[in-house]
Amino acid sequence: MQAVTHKSHFVQDLAGCLDVAIGSHGLTQAELKMWLAKAEPALDGLRKDYETGALPLLKICEETADLDAAETALAKLSAGAQTIVFFGTGGSGLGGQTLAQIAGWGIPFTAARRAHMRLRFYDNLDGSTLAALLNSTDFPATRFVVTSKSGGTTETLAQAIVTLSAVKAAGLSSRIPELFLGITEPSKPGSLNGLRTLFEAHGIPLLEHHTGIGGRFSCLTNVGLLPAMARGLDARAIRAGARAALEPLLAGLPAAEVPFAAGAATMVALAKARGIRSLVLMPYSDRLGKFSEWFVQLWAESLGKGGEGTMPIAALGPVDQHSQLQLFMDGPREIALTIVRTPTREVGPSINPGMAATAGLKFMGGRTIGDVVDAQAHAVAEALVKAGRPVRTIDLPGLDDHAAGAILMHFMLETIVAGRLLNLDPFDQPAVELAKVLTRNRLASEH
Q1: Alpha carbon of residue 130 to chain centroid
Q2: Which residue pairs, CB below 8 angstroms and at least 24 apart, start in 191-197?
């Protein structure tokens, strides 16, 4: 299988996963063909899910009312603000971080399109970190967005409660409704939504979390798009890119021509037929660092159940060429890689030819920093093939809003198809739920 270009405007090349490229450690055409055939019912199921609305993720790109509400809420929340703090763990945090970083968040000296607005994300619960935040925050100039689909996430509710207490202690009780915004599900009869109850008691406005789209799949809902908009991205363009990733599916193309289905079939086949146990996602861009972390949660929590699944590993090029690549290239033959590349040639400052020659690097003279990264991203993929290591490459045309939506939707759909190939429910997380119950029991027993 060679490179396939499609209407979501990126190129996926799976040739480095086949035996013709890497020898016996790759899949034969017959093996890949078998798994592609197994993916066809999954595609038929997705098409039916689209028509019936049974899988709301497939229809979210066509909705606009929630974007109107989010834009209105963000405009109101942002008035007089210098910083927005986002509380939300797991998928409630990583999707927004991924999109915000594509727009430059977390990368020093990268300006946001939305002027004078700093974003901070607190997705992990740590007493010292939270104390440092609350002790140094200029509350009148700071806004807080709290996200929990169920409204009962222990970590997020703890963050919300202590932050509300700190705002009250600062003498700003009357301003709480303008300083906070919540995202959670609508009320359900007979079910307690702690976040909704708490925020309604304080007069804090709430946006509705989509009831049919869970945390790790929520990056295209207001959960992920509110931080994206706060950083200056166009939520409608993101959804248009995501919709483009669906076009091969809705056009009725076979699995081999549907990039996310071909990717899922290849990764599952490598696990089943070649003993691959770890999947590495290694983009060559600072702006895709959080994307790798988002993928790790998506793949691990969706597919790691019932004794199935492969270990996802986040990496970043070129820095991880100096750490993890040694293992990927020369360690156990149970690792497959996906390298994501963006156009970097002629990007960045040029390298002075004289100084390059003095440093013994004449070959770099006159080149840009982006030229060096481009050469590395291609050379590593070639080296992996020569070492007989399975490698897929994905080449994005850029990192604009449209491409962001396309690549996010691609990996969500690839994960769903992989789950169905493994006869798993990619949307539940039973082991995680058990840990939540035991946490609650332990805290209750210590009172």
Answers
A1: 24
A2: 192/151, 192/152, 193/150, 193/151, 193/152, 194/151, 194/152, 194/157, 195/146, 195/148, 195/151, 195/152, 195/153, 195/156, 195/157, 195/160, 196/151, 197/151
Q: Are residues 262 and 143 in the same domain?
A: no
In which domain, by residue range, is 206 found?
A: 60-236
Same domain for 353 and 380, yes or no, is yes
Residues 65 and 44 in one domain: no
Picking from 98-102, 259-263, 440-444, which range would have the lowest pLDDT averaged per residue?
A: 440-444
d(CA 410, CA 41): 18
One domain, residues 286 and 162: no
Mean pLDDT score, 376-395: 98
Q: Which pLDDT belongs to residue 320?
A: 97
**Is the pLDDT assigned to residue 112 strictly greater than 90?**
no
**Total count of domains within the chain:** 2
> What average pLDDT does range 68-95 have in this prediction?
96
Catalytic residues: 301, 322, 436
Measured distance CA(201)–CA(169) in Å, rounded = 18
